TrEMBL record:
Domain IclR-ED: 63-245
PANTHER family xref list: HELIX-TURN-HELIX TRANSCRIPTIONAL REGULATOR, ICLR FAMILY, HTH-TYPE TRANSCRIPTIONAL REPRESSOR ALLR
Residue intervals of the HTH iclR-type domain: 2-62
Pfam families in UniProt: HTH_IclR (PF09339), IclR_C (PF01614)
Gene3D superfamilies: 3.30.450.40, Winged helix-like DNA-binding domain superfamily/Winged helix DNA-binding domain
Transmembrane segments: 189-213
Domain of life: Bacteria
PROSITE patterns recorded: HTH_ICLR, ICLR_ED
Species, as recorded: Streptomyces tibetensis
Protein name per Swiss-Prot or TrEMBL: IclR family transcriptional regulator
UniProt keyword terms in alphabetical order: DNA-binding, Membrane, Transcription, Transcription regulation, Transmembrane, Transmembrane helix
InterPro entries given in the database record: GAF-like_dom_sf, HTH_MetabolicPath_Reg, Tscrpt_reg_IclR_C, Tscrpt_reg_IclR_N, WH-like_DNA-bd_sf, WH_DNA-bd_sf
UniProt-listed SMART domains: HTH_ICLR
Length: 245
């Protein structure tokens, strides 16, 4: 064990417990450290940005806050990853989590197995939102201007014989999608694959959970999507906290 590191960590923990700051003498007393040692460690931690000093009081610095923020993001991501893995195993299908952020479709996490692999991203998901269920589900949650802006940047293009043919046809389809209904596509993005996506709108973030199956198992698609939707409802609170991972 490296004693100086242990003492520095003890100081950080003690400072963190004082929302309104604490002076060096109080920190020395509460940590059981000698006052000269406390001063030396405090100066070092301030220099490195882990603490800041204001009017004789010590507070957590930007470096410590960045660590805290990173830890929170990792915890939120872990919540999503664990949920996807659980649903993947329960349904026997790959499960996807995606969001629409800053004008782009982002697939944040995919959970699959060698027995039930995810659909291969052979064409960039961001540019082909018109063709896959994830993209259609996210676009259906946007307002009209944002939706048209996306299609101006990524116009419809045929990927398979089943892909929607033009922007107008896609917009009409999106307008017919009922709120909170699963969005399905059959071999529009990739031949041999069918997909379903469930809208997940939390605050101002458009998000979705999705599944895919081989085309010969298309009869399983909607029942599995409904089951996933029910499972999502049970974890909505946790997902709401994790949506911005």
């Amino acid at each position: 064990m490296i004693g100086s590191v242990q003492r520095a960590m003890r100081l950080l923990e003690t400072v963190a417990a004082h929302e309104h700051g604490a002076p060096a003498k109080q920190l020395a007393r509460e940590t059981g450290l000698a006052l000269p040692t406390t001063y030396h460690l405090l100066r070092t931690l301030v220099h490195e940005g882990y603490l800041r000093r204001d009017k004789g009081l010590f507070f957590l610095g930007e470096a410590a806050e960045r660590l805290s923020s990173s830890g929170a993001r990792q915890k939120r991501r872990s919540t999503i990853v664990d949920a996807l893995a659980r649903w993947r195993d329960a349904l026997g299908v790959p499960v996807y989590y995606a969001v629409y952020r800053e004008g782009e479709i982002e697939v944040m996490c995919v959970s699959d197995t060698p027995v039930n692999p995810a659909v291969e991203e052979w064409a960039d998901f961001r540019e082909t939102g018109h063709a896959h269920a994830i993209g259609q589900c996210l676009l259906s949650q946007l307002d009209e201007d944002t939706r048209r802006d996306h299609l101006d940047r990524y116009p419809v293009q045929p990927l398979t014989p089943y892909t929607v043919r033009d922007n107008h046809s896609l917009l009409r389809r999106l307008e017919r999608i009922r709120r909170m209904e699963p969005v399905t596509e059959r071999q529009e993005y990739a031949l041999g694959a069918v997909c379903a996506a469930i809208p997940l709108t939390l605050g101002t973030t458009a998000a979705t959970m999705a599944i895919s199956l081989p085309a010969h198992q298309a009869d399983r698609l909607l029942p599995a999507a409904r089951q996933l939707q029910a499972e999502m409802g049970r974890l909505l609170g946790s997902l709401a906290l994790s949506i911005s991972m």
